[in-house]
Amino acid sequence: MSGELSPIDKAKFVAAKRAVDFVEDGMRVGMGTGSTAAWMVRCLGELVREEGLNITAVPTSTRTAELARDEGIKVVSLDEAKWLDITIDGADEYDAHLNLIKGGGGALLQEKIVATASDRMVVIADISKQVETLGAFPLPVEVIPFGWKTSKALVEETLVGMDVLGRETSLRMNGESAYITDEGNYILDLHLKRIADPHQLGYVLNQIPGVVENGLFVDICDTVVIGFGDGKVEVRDINNGTVEESQFDFVDSDNLFADLED
Ligand code: 5RP
């Protein structure tokens, strides 16, 4: 497999591979969305099929639900599961406090609900997602289609009073049409460059009529598992302040997921 994957994909894979060690038999697992999360779903699928791991999954998008089912993982709704033991998801940015920007893949609403309904949120990411200050990645804000231009104008007005470096906003597109989320909403991407106070901004954005949710995950993530292209993995836990390192050996796993393209 190592010959077929780019360094960035190796980094995503090793982060996912290490993170599934946190999943125990009988757990209810929240499954994130995106290319890194997809590796996690495949790793868990392998454990389910080959080692009889018994888990119940709550996916955060139709894409992830489909992949999980294809992998032979039992999928239920959050309402059926009620509460989750762990959620494993990717991120677009994480800072030293493990505050996140999420939603690059458009699934921030279900992702935030599922992560918040979990005892533990584990983020899996390659090292390129690490930032000193959040905001270089455009902040996704989910808005309802009704009156979205008014919501956009209100968001822009609100940003004037916020400690951010940029204030440009754009409607996320899918070709010629607006991108539509799983809930039938639109996404505004906020090009802020630097977010001095993610907690305040996240709170204020959610007060605007028409805004459903924003992609700032503040005080939600417990652990980040960081993958590197050479197979190194670092696990940082914000609650106990620990940092652990390990090394994944690609040679021993040559045929793992060999038939998959990401
Ligand atoms: C989807 C997300 C993803 O977790 C985020 O965009 C990271 O994706 P990837 O692992 O593909 O880089 O928030 O809404």
Summarize the structure.
The chain has 7 helices and 17 strands. It has helices at 7-19, 35-51, 62-70, 78-81, 108-116, 148-160, 198-205; strands at 28-31, 56-59, 74-75, 86-89, 93-94, 100-101, 121-126, 139-143, 168-171, 173-174, 177-178, 186-191, 211-214, 216-217, 223-227, 232-237, 242-247. The model has no long low-confidence stretch (mean pLDDT 95).
Search tags:
binds ribulose-5-phosphate, 4-stranded antiparallel sheet, 262 residues, 8-stranded mixed sheet, Rossmann fold, alpha/beta, 2 domains, Alpha-Beta Plaits, 17 strands, single chain, 25% strand
Overall description:
The chain is an alpha/beta fold. The protein contains seven helices and 17 strands. It is globular. It has helices at residues 7-19, 35-51, 62-70, 78-81, 108-116, 148-160, 198-205; strands at residues 28-31, 56-59, 74-75, 86-89, 93-94, 100-101, 121-126, 139-143, 168-171, 173-174, 177-178, 186-191, 211-214, 216-217, 223-227, 232-237, 242-247. The chain has two domains: 7-130 and 219-247, Rossmann fold, CATH 3.40.50.1360; 139-215, Alpha-Beta Plaits. A hairpin with a 4-residue loop joins strand 16 and strand 17 (242-247). The chain is 28% helix and 25% strand. Helix 1 (7-19) packs across helix 2. The two termini are 12 Å apart. The strands form four sheets. Strands 3-2-1-4-7-15-16-17 form an eight-stranded mixed β-sheet, with helices on both faces. The chain has a four-stranded antiparallel β-sheet with strand order 9-12-8-13, covered by helices on one side. A three-stranded antiparallel β-sheet has the order 5-6-14, with helices on one face. The site of ribulose-5-phosphate has 18 residues, from helix 2 and helix 5.
